[in-house]
Write a structure and sequence with these properties.
With 655 residues, this protein is an alpha+beta fold. The protein is built from 30 helices and 14 strands. Strand 13 and strand 14 form a beta hairpin. The chain is globular and about 80 Å long.
Length: 655
């Protein structure tokens, strides 16, 4: 089966935390490294006693001594090793399934400064079917059924037939281009921070992508291939062509100085979560730009604290940013926009159009030509039906403008469809017109932020404020275009984002001063230099999403309108209940407690009697009050008391 060639993207590579720098050695203090245990294979396979005896030794020494390497060696913990090594893999089913015993241990070479990358999501059967439908890949489910029957497997989760495996893997790695695709290294957990988000470890460029390695097998039948694909990268400790963030040095400095390593951490944004999951995934140009901006901001903070060629690093980041914007161009969401219009293979149609163009070219002239006359190109005639061609020709200009606007953002097909199709908008509770979306693109974030599939504010911001080279060549037309970095539409959306993050952390309001500084500190391009002076101009644009209020010291503060509404609703209910008569619930409260706890025993002391009296009084308060709060330490009988409350006839009868 033939793989499909995908447009180039970037690559994420997961590593476990290592306490000295991923250079191919046993941790210096293995027992202190609990972060690596977030990876299941390490948690299951780590031998603490063995690693303690080998602490700090290179894997080369360990191998030459005939000892087993730590399990992190199979999780790319030797990413920065200056030594090549030979890796041998055993098929995971060969040890317990007779049919799979034909697959013999198979070896491959892992060069210095490389990683054996595995895109696990693409190997999950359910995901493989979805991916194959998206890219129209020749995935054959029948081959999997044949393997299952032969090996007596019951609904395995993974793709098993070598033909399907190789086609999927070749398609995945076709998007990773030598010396163009960036190589983002991340970890699921580190001692740098307790933040649950993925933490970025470093970035370089992809230098080379290896070929597929089939398992050696001693008999015929279906084949299987190793999922690992060797990728060489450009990251070096000298930082000429990529770098690792100096987390280890920051951790050391924090022991003696007033330094918090978390202040220097670069986290993967939540909207990019899928791109940094399943060990290795594609990373879009949009996400790459976001991360490069965040890295640049952090490097500027690191430079005065940790020695290094940080000036050169910032120049390197600037060059990669320029390349990222050129590759992204003005319409990263073209495929999603086509799909929103109704073209089933919209993503593939967009790929075909973009393959005819250079970097940073507007695809809409060619797109309009193909949509009006699909016979102009075989790719168009294969994907644009006569009905959709006629529909495009008759679509009002405002609808076309909305579709072109949506293509400016790196949206999923579901997000674009929800925003473009009026019935889908209504179904999702987004009550807004095409004209209103065109007049304020940031409403895409504001209205979708609480939905099941929200669009991040930075996704919108990169579409409205792309790099100057994109803006100059492809300005966003009126009324969507914003000229000022502190346009009230942008300011309100950024404030909403800050307040939503605060709400997620448990804070229902933020002082104006803190909101302003958080936005000024964000890694945005261009920066949003709001100030108290600017906020006087933007104040009238804050409703209906934001209310202005005050902190306890009377300084100005902001609160999400939805939380202010909730506070007022709760206040009304509490006030009404406090002023109402007690509920008419009566019982022999002590008898109810005795029934719940059992009769007192002769050996029970006075404390037990006092405890029961307290519980009886509390039960009466709970039953008759229209509003009550039950507080108590663990083991003090709260659950027993609530069970007694729920068993009262008046309570049980009223539900």
């Amino acid at each position: 089966m033939t793989a499909r060639k995908l447009p180039y993207q970037h690559l994420s590579v997961r590593v476990p935390w290592h306490d000295t720098g991923w250079e191919g050695s046993v941790c210096a203090d293995p027992l202190a490294n609990g972060a690596c245990l977030r990876l299941g294979r390490i948690a299951e396979g780590r031998d603490d006693a063995l690693e303690l005896s080998l602490a700090g030794r290179s894997w080369n020494d360990v191998s030459q001594a005939g000892l087993r390497l730590p399990p992190c060696s199979a999780e790319r913990a030797g990413l920065m090793s200056p030594h090549p090594r030979r890796v041998t893999k055993e098929h995971p089913y060969a040890s317990w399934n007779d049919v799979y015993r034909k697959f013999q241990p198979t070896s491959y070479d892992l060069p210095r400064y490389s990683a054996d990358c595995v895109p696990f999501r693409w190997m999950l059967r359910d995901s493989a079917v979805e991916i194959s439908e998206q890219y129209q890949l020749p995935y054959e489910a029948g081959l999997e059924a044949t393997v299952d029957a032969e090996a007596s497997l019951r609904s395995p989760a993974w793709v098993q037939h070598g033909t399907n495996q190789q086609m999927l893997l070749d398609t995945f790695f076709s998007a990773v281009q030598k010396e163009r695709s960036l190589f983002f290294v991340y970890a699921k957990e580190s001692p740098v921070s307790n933040d649950p988000r993925r933490i970025l470890i470093g970035v370089g460029r992809t230098l080379d992508v290896g070929q597929v390695v089939p398992y050696v097998q001693d008999s015929g039948g279906f084949g299987s291939v190793l999922w690992e694909r060797v990728v060489r990268h450009s990251i070096r400790t000298t930082m000429e062509d990529g770098f690792l963030l100096p987390y280890h040095e920051l951790l050391r400095l924090s022991e003696d100085a007033d330094i918090d390593p978390e202040d220097y951490a670069v986290f993967v944004p939540e909207e990019a979560g899928l791109e940094f999951s399943y060990a290795s995934e594609h990373v879009s140009h949009d996400t790459a730009i976001s991360l490069l901006l965040a890295l640049d901001r952090t490097v500027a903070k690191v430079a005065p604290t940790v020695s290094g060629s940080w000036g050169s690093v910032r120049e390197w980041l600037s060059e990669r940013l320029g390349e990222g914007w050129e590759a992204r161009g003005p319409s990263p969401g073209l495929g999603a926009a086509f799909a929103a219009f109704g073209i089933k293979e919209g993503v593939l149609l967009a790929h075909a159009i973009q393959s005819r163009l250079g970097d940073n070219e507007d695809p809409w002239q060619l797109a309009d030509q193909w949509l009006r006359d699909p016979s102009a190109d075989p790719e168009a005639s294969a994907r644009v039906s006569a009905v959709f061609s006629k529909a495009w020709a008759s679509v009002p200009e405002e609808r076309r403008a909305l579709l072109r606007l949506l293509s400016r953002f790196d949206l999923t097909t579901d997000q674009a469809t929800c925003l473009y199709q009026p019935t889908e908008r209504s179904k999702a509770g987004l009550h807004i017109s095409d004209a209103e979306l065109l007049a304020n693109p940031y409403l895409i974030y504001e209205l979708s932020r609480l939905s099941a599939d929200p669009v991040a504010v930075r996704t919108v911001d990169r579409g409205v404020f792309p790099d100057d080279r994109v803006r100059a060549a492809h300005p966003l037309p009126s009324p969507s275009g914003l000229e000022d970095a502190v346009d009230p539409r942008r300011v309100r959306a950024l404030i909403v984002d800050v307040l939503e993050d605060a709400a997620a952390a448990g804070d229902s309001l933020r002082s104006q001063e803190r909101v302003i500084q958080e936005i000024r500190d964000e890694a945005l391009q261009p920066a949003c230099p709001i100030s108290q002076d600017v906020m006087t101009v933007c104040a009238e644009a804050l409703p209906p999403e934001i209310e202005t209020t005050k902190m306890a010291d009377s300084s100005p503060a902001y609160q999400l309108a939805r939380l202010a509404d909730a506070r007022r609703a709760i206040s009304r209910q509490v006030t009404r209940r406090r002023g109402a008569a007690p509920l008419k619930v009566s019982a022999d409260w002590r008898a109810v407690i005795n029934q719940a706890l059992g009769d007192m025993k002769p050996e029970d002391d006075g404390e037990e009697e006092l405890a029961r009296q307290e519980k009886a009084a509390a039960l009466e308060m709970l039953a008759t009050s229209r509003l009550s709060v039950l507080i108590g330490a663990a083991g003090t009988g709260k659950t027993t008391l609530l069970r007694a409350l729920a068993g009262l006839p008046e309570i049980a009868g009223g539900g």
